[in-house]
Design a protein that fits this description.
By secondary structure, this protein is mainly alpha-helical. The chain has one domain (3-62): Orthogonal Bundle (Helix Hairpins), CATH 1.10.287. 70% of the residues lie in helices and 0% in strands. It is built from 3 helices and no strands. It has helices at residues 3-7, 11-33, 41-62. Helix 2 packs antiparallel against helix 3 (41-62). The longest helix is centred in the first third of the chain and has 23 residues, at 11-33. The protein is elongated.
């Protein structure tokens, strides 16, 4: 999922999306633990998507929404 897609969502949609992604992670971890996992690479992608969501939510909380980080 792209950051631009995440930024287009409101706070409620972000919370729902984060919960869905966390549920998917649990399912993949259970499948991996029982040796039924087929695509373990998806686990990393889900974690990165959650990190992106948390970053966007934190930016909004700090009032940095829409500003690019200057380096």
């Amino acid at each position: 999922m792209k950051v631009s897609e995440i930024r287009d969502k409101n706070e409620e949609e972000l919370a729902t999306l984060e919960k869905e992604l966390r549920d998917q992670i649990v399912k993949i971890e259970v499948a991996r633990a029982t040796q039924r996992a087929t695509n373990t690479a998806q686990l990393g992608r889900l974690r990165k998507d959650i990190a992106r969501i948390l970053t966007v939510r934190r930016e909004r909380a700090l009032g940095l929404a829409g500003q690019e980080a200057s380096t």
